[in-house]
């Protein structure tokens, strides 16, 4: 049975990690389009501020303080949605955090903590969403935020890459199992490239300098638009940014060459010239408590993605393929100024 997805204005949408970056931009964008929202994050103050902002703008929202790494707290998100709105139509598993450092330098306890949020938190949310949507008239959408690193790992973020590989495997399997059972649930994996959010500032850092994202960099609005598209139109997987698609293709067809390129570029491109912040200032161990959409990237930030726009509209698929080819070419030449597809 195919899901009958509603227009955003008619939906109740659950968003985890709703007070920062992609989650925050998506919440604000969905509220402007008329969606009722269930906002989940760890910071009570930030959640209350966001809910008040949405309500003052004429929207409707509730908030739930929850650490997605704890299954019982994820269940509370479901109960809150049912209590306030009778359920939900779309669940977005967005909460996540990273660690910078060579694998040998990162404590195993931190690795496990990252997996509790990035992987197990997503698993808990997906299972709650699937059970609810299977019994809902018309079904609904489950949208999991993976990464271009779900397809291709890079150095210095090994555990983040591992968690996003796991997210891809789990999401793809859940999609197939729900489809085989005839459940009216659309399951989508969104794979953003490098996005200008507080991601690097929130990561726990074991480098000798402050980390930074490697180009090309995209605005968080590019991801939010893709998420809301998939809440209305079933999609299996969506790359946000031609750079990520190009990297995935390069890794699939030329894995050894990709290793060499990664080794020559990404150790340097992920290190800034700034001294590191105190290590305790990270979102792995505690919530940030601030409503920050962007991370203040100093270089060019692409406000849209030709590749992603084309891939979500079949009539432009040819343009998307050309864009991906250009990105592979620019990666090979190693010229950041040309990587803005």
**Global mean pLDDT:** 93
Q: What proportion strand?
A: 5-15%
Count every beta strand, where a strand is a DSSP E run of 2 or more residues. Answer: 12
Architecture, CATH level 2? 3-Layer(aba) Sandwich
Helix/sheet category: alpha/beta
Question: Remind me, CATH topology?
Answer: Rossmann fold
Q: What characteristic shape results from the CA principal axes?
A: globular
Which regions have little confidence, pLDDT < 50, spanning 5+ residues? Answer: 334-340
Gyration radius, in Å: 19 Å
Can you put this structure into words, describing what you see?
This protein is α/β, with parallel strands linked by helices. It has one domain (8-332): Rossmann fold, CATH 3.40.50.720. 46% of the residues lie in helices and 14% in strands. It has 11 helices and 12 strands. The chain has helices spanning 21-32, 44-56, 71-85, 108-134, 158-180, 199-202, 220-232, 242-253, 255-269, 306-311, 317-333; strands at residues 12-16, 36-41, 60-65, 90-93, 99-100, 140-145, 185-192, 194-195, 204-205, 217-218, 237-240, 301-302. The strands form 3 sheets. It has a 7-stranded parallel sheet with strand order 3-2-1-4-6-7-11, with helices on both faces. Strand 6 (140-145), helix 5 (158-180) and strand 7 form a beta-alpha-beta unit. The chain is globular. Mean pLDDT is 93; it is low at 334-340.
Q: What is the compact description of this entry?
A:
46% of the residues lie in helices and 14% in strands.
């Amino acid at each position: 049975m195919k899901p009958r997805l509603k227009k955003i204005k008619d939906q109740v949408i659950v968003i985890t990690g709703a007070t920062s970056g992609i989650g925050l931009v998506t919440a604000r964008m969905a509220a402007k389009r008329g969606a009722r929202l269930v906002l989940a994050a760890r910071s009570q103050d930030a959640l209350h501020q966001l809910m008040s902002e949405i309500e003052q703008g004429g929207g409707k929202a509730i908030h739930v303080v929850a650490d997605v790494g704890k299954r019982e707290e994820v269940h509370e998100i479901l109960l809150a949605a049912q209590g306030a709105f009778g359920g939900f139509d779309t669940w977005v598993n967005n909460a996540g955090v990273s660690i910078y450092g060579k694998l040998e330098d990162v404590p195993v306890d931190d690795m496990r903590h990252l997996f509790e949020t990035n992987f197990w938190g997503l698993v808990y949310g997906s299972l709650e969403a699937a059970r609810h949507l299977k019994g809902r008239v018309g079904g609904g959408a489950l949208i999991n935020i993976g990464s271009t690193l779900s397809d291709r790992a890079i150095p210095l973020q090994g555990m983040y890459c591992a968690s996003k590989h796991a997210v891809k495997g789990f999401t793809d399997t859940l999609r197939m199992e729900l489809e085989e059972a005839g459940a009216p649930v659309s399951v989508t994996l969104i794979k953003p490239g490098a996005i200008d959010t507080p991601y690097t500032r929130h990561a726990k850092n074991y480098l000798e300098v402050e980390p930074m994202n490697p180009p090309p960099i995209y605005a968080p609005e590019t991801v939010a638009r893709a998420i809301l598209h998939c809440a209305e139109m079933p999609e299996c997987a969506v790359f946000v940014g031609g750079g990520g698609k190009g990297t995935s293709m390069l890794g699939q067809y030329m894995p050894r060459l990709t290793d060499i390129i990664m080794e020559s570029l990404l150790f340097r491109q992920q290190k800034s010239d700034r001294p590191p912040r105190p290590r305790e200032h990270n979102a792995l161990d505690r919530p940030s408590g601030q409503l920050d959409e962007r991370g203040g990237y100093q270089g060019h930030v692409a406000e849209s993605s030709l590749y992603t726009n084309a891939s979500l509209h079949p009539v432009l698929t040819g343009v998307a393929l050309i864009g991906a080819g250009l990105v592979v070419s620019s990666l090979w030449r190693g010229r950041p100024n040309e990587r803005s597809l």
